[in-house]
Design goal:
The protein has 244 residues and is of the alpha/beta class. Helix content is 41%, strand content 17%. It is built from 8 helices and 8 strands. Helix 4 runs antiparallel to helix 8 and helix 6 packs parallel to helix 7. The chain is elongated. 48% of the residues are buried.
Amino acid sequence: MADGTAPGRVPLVAVAHGSRDPRAAATVAALLDQVPLDVRVAYLDHCAPTLGQALGGLEEAVVLPLLLTEAYHSRVDLPAALNEARARDPRLRVHYGHTLGPHPMLLAALERRLAEAGVPAGDPDTAVVLVSAGSSDARANAVIARLARQWRRSGWWTVTPAYASAAEPTPAQAVESLRRAGAPRVVVAPYLLAPGYFADKVRRGTLAAGADIVADVLGPAPELVGVLLERYEAAQRQPVSLAG
């Protein structure tokens, strides 16, 4: 997708969740347009092409989940789809990589979005609600809780994890709790890749609950491009197992 692609490099197939909201696909395209590789996009749901379609005609590919936590999609859905693709075409060589998150550079991307909203990094008078989409996989939610604890050490009043679905506290509950605790200012940092249903729901709910500022989603932040390129190289050196 990007201009100036590096000749001779293994093509990258980047797999996003997919959304009925056209802003999501546009955001994924804006991210991938910054990647200096031969890039194809695929979607798990709601959009075309599918992963099988994106792999069509390729003999070798690096497949990366454009997901911010490891959960059911990256552990089960994508390996199953890749094994099906390899069964259809035994010549296909796949290097499966890790999800974008967790990664230290994503904290820098979150701080970038807050700074763009007028919130200086590590402000001791600011409490941050770190909002992920949420998952039925407790391990994925635990990653967000650990990320919040890590980020809290940057000097914020505090950082509280919240989940837009499948777990608690909800973003609105987290904002209300921080208000009751006396936080001078409460801001919301969406740990979401693209705009869409969850991002809109988080913005509406947290502002109604008393949040002062809601930052933008991560989107095509340059830090995500750096993470993606790092995952691409790592997948060729030590790919994630597709067993099972």
